[in-house]
Amino acid sequence: MVKRSNWRYNPIHGSVRGVAMLTFYSLIVFVLVVDGALLTFLAFAYHSKRFEGYRISLKESMKVPGAERLKNIAFIAVLSLAAVLGMTGAIYRFTFHDHLVTAWRIAYEIVAILLVYDLAYYWLHRAMHTKKLMRLVHGKHHEVHNPTAMESFYLTPAELFAGLGLLLACTWLVGPVSIYSFAAVFFIHSTLNITVHSGLLSKRTLLWPIDHLTRKHYTHHAGNYDNNFASLTPFWDMLFRTAK
User: In degrees rounded to 5, what are phi and psi of residue 140?
Assistant: First the structure.
């Protein structure tokens, strides 16, 4: 006979977890709204005469027809939203918490996740430039030779899930982490991904690191496929001598 479990549902704990998850997803949705506004502005700026002097190149972004390009971007954007909500929900219990922690702990978690992810992504991106994975996974993204913010979503579903899955795996490896730490990581990751694809340079002294990463990624898309694999910093490319 199967023994009955001693576990009992505690409505107080359930309620607390529910509040924590509501807070967590409120933060995620806020990040998505902010990034949506940023993407819209950068896409507008790229095609505006007013900001033409900030463009890295005046060449066309890609030769794929506009309708086909927008169809893929819209599909990946919707799929990305579903993937973020679904995948974080699946690992929430094992990866996130809402306990009170110090600001130093949150800062440590943010830096640790980003460094581990950037190293892991360097090797994932480098692997995607092998002949087979380029054809099956990464080649669609490289139909873009002069990227704009919109093309940060010009991907195959396989590449989307690989990148997001890697970020969550790195978070789990460092974790369990505060929901606030992950919200900051998610904001930095998604905002930089949009910005480095923008094709625009701010030409502001305080923003030179972002300008550097943007130009670095433009160089990669422009045909330097054996260079500039890291996503968030130039460190790993410098270390493994693939920086250009």
Answer: -60, -45
SS3 sequence of 54-112: HECCCCCCCCCCHHHHHHHHHHHHHHHHHHHHHHHHHHHHHHEECCCCCHHHHHHHHHH
Task: Please name the residue ranges forming H helices in the chain.
Answer: 11-46, 66-95, 103-128, 131-133, 157-174, 179-196, 208-221, 235-239
- What is the per-residue pLDDT across 53-98, written as a single tens digit (0 to 9) for each? 999 988 777 666 778 888 999 999 999 999 999 999 999 999 999 8
Q: What is the DSSP letter of 137?
A: I
Q: What is the distance in angstroms between the CA of the first residue and the CA of the last residue of the chain?
A: 67
Say if pTM beats, i.e. exceeds, 0.90.
no
